[in-house]
Amino acid sequence: MNRLDSRLSLAHFYVAFAAIGVGGLFGLFQTLVRSEMITLPSSINYYQILTAHGVLMALVFTTFFIYGFLYSSIVRTTGPFTSGRRKVAWIGFISMAIGTATAVIMILLNKATVLYTFYAPLEAHPLFYIALALLVVGTYFGAFAIFGQYRQWRKEHQGEKTPLLAFMAVATLVLWLIATIGVVLTVVLQFIPWSLGISETINITLSRTLFWYFGHPLVYFWLLPAYMAWYVIVPKIIGGKIFSDSLVRLAFLLFILFSIPVGFHHQLLEPGISEGWKFVQVVLTFAVIIPSLMTAFSLFATFEMRGRRLGGKRLFGWFKKLPWKDVRFFAPFMGMLIFIPAGAGGIINASNQLNQIIHNTIWVTGHFHLTVGATVALTFFGISYWLIPHLKGRKLTKKMNGIALYQTVIWIVGMFVMSGAMHYSGLLGNPRRTQVTNYGDHAVASAWGPYETAMAIGGSLLFISLVLYLILMINLAFFAPKGQEEFPVGVEADQSLKHPAILENWKVWVGIAFALILFAYTIPVIDIIQNAPPGSKGFKFW
Amino acid sequence: MHMHKLEKVWLIIGVITLIAFLTTVGIQAFASGHAPPSDLTKVDPEKVDETPPFNEPGLKKVGENEYELVMVLQSFGFTPNKVEIPHGSTVKFIVTSKDVVHGFEIAGTRVNMMVTPGHVNSMTYTFEEKGEYLILCNEYCGIGHHMMSAELEVK
Question: Is residue A358 within 8 Å of residue A349, measured between CB atoms?
Fold first, then answer.
């Protein structure tokens, strides 16, 4: 890849690595504080580092890593950026970086201890909300640079199938653009004027609804780049083929349709929203199971076909033939495997009345540490092990690969222990987002103690793994032997298959997406606005 | 579009399971009355203390073995914060917040609801087992969030 585009991608990766380093350290502290092994110095409080952990991990690490990966994917498949588009992308990076730095400073100054979901009427400093807006707006520049690149490729290759990775990058960003409408509206129209004192009160239910309109597709924004690696990159690494190009595209389009009009399943226990509309969105939520089943089928078909070609016999003989000692395969594969129980947990969370048992318990924290913290993170680790040396003109050596396998295994064990303890004690009622949970040594709460200890053990393992990861990344970026590390891109098994033109007619899919959103949200949102109770003024309870 | 035969079978089984599942959830929610708490009653969050029933928080007997428990939440406590309930009784919890968003959870039961300022939330639960229950706030509400709890004794 050319130097200038590599530099663009790498800038995003460096911010992502800094974010996961600091965010991970805070995560370790949280498990140690909750299990009452340490107390924080009085200059910093638990909820402050909890806010920082959420913002740095869920918003900063993911977004910067994803952009670094999407830029290199689009350049790999459609050619170098034009200098104009590269400039636009850099403007986006600067906006995102300023937003991130400002948000982190406000959190560390204890001016924004509102957690990364920033629920009103807890009121942070206006700069915190402005910083979040800058972060999101920055991503729009990058999205348009990538759209431009894709459009130009199509113009120059009329009648041809677009490169699959480029299509997926565009689909991911289409989802992101539609999803962020909600958070931009609530931040710009509600939070910023309210925190500046321009408007006196805020409509709580509306702000939460707009947040969760964004909050659920946000998780698919993390997941789709992982799917890009599973569908296109992993097949090439194992020497296999993509099962079906068209089905992959269809799956991505279905994710755009069914990940957005579903935010109410995060608000199931909330007053002010009727049972009926909650149920409508629960039904739409579950439609996302269909593309998930398609993904599971296609990926395992790819693995089985490859394993059998290598001589794997009987029902599961092919399984042993896969390249288990190649971290570029092993890490994302383990992520995939973990997504099976993680997805099952998600089904429980969204199941209308079943949600009542686990809502706001630490079960939920356990759930998203399996989805984003294990599935997505392991896949991203797997990507970075070849992409960083690829961008820097270096090689992933055998020795590095060996250490990386250990890093992956420690992460998995740590996550298994921590997330397992979170799931189980959540079922017993242990709340999430809580500094300590002894409640004056109440008998009910004391049963949670051993689980808190397990979380600290898991958290410590995760931190060890994280340190290993960052050492490997520094090595691969600056010290590994010079050479050419491959950017693996798979091809379809049967290339004679026709590709239905509708799969690339974005007007149709974006149109359907908006129709579903309007169906699921118009009436309840009008109701939330028209039947609003008196609004809330801000509170700073930290 | 070409689709492998086994994939079709796989997806058909998946879709049928999904429909069966959602039908079950729907019947339980709407026919058996297990829909999640979705009270639509409004209240001015700055006038909670003057608005009935929150002007007199506490336990009220409304029928044979039936009670209403009115609670006001504010950072970082519940009013009242100690309640005794006779064994076997059915209690309707009626709650609201005077300030920020709180959660109302009775650990180890299915009593769990969001309490947002401006709205009243409510749900009903029958206590079949005696014991010391822990009511806690499960939504971050500020620096003292982990201290926000109340005791409920069923005897």
Answer: yes
Cβ atoms within 10 Å of A23's Cβ, excluding its own: 22
A–B interface: beta-carbon pairs under 8 A: 226
Whether chain B has a CB inside 8 Å of the CB on A282: the answer is yes
Answer whether A356 sits within 8 Å of B36, measured CB to CB.
yes
CA distance A99 to A93: 10
Which residues of chain B have a CB within 8 Å of the CB of A274? 38, 40
Fold of the B38-154 domain: Immunoglobulin-like (2.60.40)
**Residues contacting A495, CB < 8 A, separation 6+:** none
The whole-number pLDDT of residue A8 equals 97
Q: Which residues of A carry out catalysis?
A: 216, 220, 367-369, 432-433
Whether the CB of A36 is below 8 Å from some CB of chain B: the reply is: no
Closest CA of chain A from B133, distance in Å: 7
The H or E element spanning position B62 is strand B58-63
B24-60, pLDDT tens digit by residue?
999 998 988 889 999 999 999 999 999 999 999 999 9
How far CA B1 is from CA of A231, A244, A383, A506, in Å, comes to 18, 10, 30, 18
- Whether the model pTM is above 0.90: yes
Tens digits of residue pLDDT in A167-194: 999 999 999 999 999 999 999 999 999 9
A48 interfaces chain B, CB cutoff of 8 Å: no
> ipTM strictly over 0.90?
yes
Among candidates B114, B137, B149 on the partner chain, residue whose Cβ is nearest the Cβ of A269: B114
Q: Could you report the per-residue pLDDT of A90-128, keeping only the tens digit for each?
A: 999 999 999 999 999 999 999 999 999 999 999 999 999
Element (H, E) at B78: strand B77-79
Give the containing element (helix H, strand E) for B126: strand B121-126
Residue in B19, B138, B148, B149 to test binding to A, most A beta-carbons within 10 Å: B138
B65 near B74, Cβ under 8 Å? Answer: no
Which of B36, B99, B151 is opposite residue A539, by nearest beta carbon? Answer: B99
Instruction: Count Cα atoms within 13 angstroms, Cβ side, for A7.
Output: 6
Instruction: Name A314's Cβ contacts closer than 8 Å, sequence gap at least 6.
Output: none
